[in-house]
Amino acid sequence: MELVQVRLVVRDFGECFRFYRDVLGLTPQTDDEAGPYGKFTLPGGTAAVALQQRAHLARDAPWLRGRATGGGDAALLVLKVDDLDAITAELRSRGAPLEAGPEDRWERLRVAYLRDPEGNLIELQQWTAPRQA
């Protein structure tokens, strides 16, 4: 597994975006404070901090709707894996219940979600080849 990002789930995307860009001085990959998603490269370029608007997360993860729109999850750990189906099968065999997935999401991404014993949300993601038209 490889750490992809720590994603913060925020209510006021613009305010948080400006904080990470203007106050902390992080470099946004796309300079768009309108959101609903943005990613900042950390110095050295090996890790990232991402922001995602709560309402956007709730739309893309309907099983999370109650938590994402209220005071629930404020962050999620995002880990990249080579074979999502194999990893999730292995995790299930070890007793890890999945919240959702594996499922295709967006153009080139498959994801699955689970929680650690303290309830922290973890996203496992596998980047796939572009779909043929």
Write structural notes for this entry.
Strands 2-3-4-1-5-8-7-6 form an 8-stranded mixed sheet. The protein is globular. With 133 residues, it is α+β, with helices and mostly antiparallel strands. The protein contains 4 helices and 8 strands; from the N terminus they run E-H-E-E-E-H-H-E-H-E-E-E. It has helices at 13-23, 54-60, 65-69, 84-93; strands at 2-10, 27-28, 37-41, 48-53, 75-80, 98-105, 109-115, 121-127.
Radius of gyration: 15 Å
Structural class: alpha+beta
Tally of DSSP helical segments: 4
Low-confidence stretches: none
Measured by DSSP, the beta-strand proportion falls in: 35-45%
Distance between the termini: 30 Å
Please outline the helices and strands.
Blueprint: E1 2-10, H1 13-23, E2 27-28, E3 37-41, E4 48-53, H2 54-60, H3 65-69, E5 75-80, H4 84-93, E6 98-105, E7 109-115, E8 121-127
Supply database-style keywords.
8 strands, 133 residues, alpha+beta, 8-stranded mixed sheet
Q: What is the compact description of this entry?
A:
The protein has 133 residues and is α+β, with helices and mostly antiparallel strands. It contains 4 helices and 8 strands, in the order βαβββααβαβββ. The protein has an 8-stranded mixed sheet.
